[in-house]
Amino acid sequence: MKNFDAKWQACAARARQAIPRDDQPPFGFATRVTERAARPGTTPVEFAWDRVLARLLAGAVTVLLVCAAVELPHFRDAQPLTPGIENAVAQLVWSL
């Protein structure tokens, strides 16, 4: 940070000597941008999102089907909401 003012003055002097550039956009740039914005269709980002969401939906459906397959044998139980032995032990311990 020493000699900051001297370095700043040197950089500013070089910047003043630079050739000015044309800051105008290329011919037809605004027309191309508005035409692309008005064009129906999906952008690459939307397409990628659609693919990711489709994969996530397929995964969720797969997990749901696996859970249903695991529970299917117990579907016709007489008392499906009867607490198991671990719940009975927990109730006894908490009542001590």
Task: Report a brief summary of the structure.
It is built from four helices and no strands.
Structure description:
The protein is mainly alpha-helical and 96 residues long. The protein has a domain at 50-75. It has helices spanning 4-16, 29-38, 44-71, 85-95. The protein is elongated and about 90 Å long. The chain starts with a helix and ends with a helix.
List keywords for this structure.
single chain, about 100 residues, mainly alpha, elongated
Rg over CA atoms, rounded to whole Å, is: 35 Å
The count of β-strands is 0
Helix content: 55-70%
Low-confidence stretches: none
Element order: H for helix, E for strand = HHHH
Profile the largest sheet.
none
Terminal CA distance:
72 Å
Give the strand content. under 5%
Oligomer designation: single chain
SSE class: mainly alpha
- Count the DSSP helices: 4
Mean pLDDT: 81
Instruction: Report the principal-axis shape.
Output: elongated
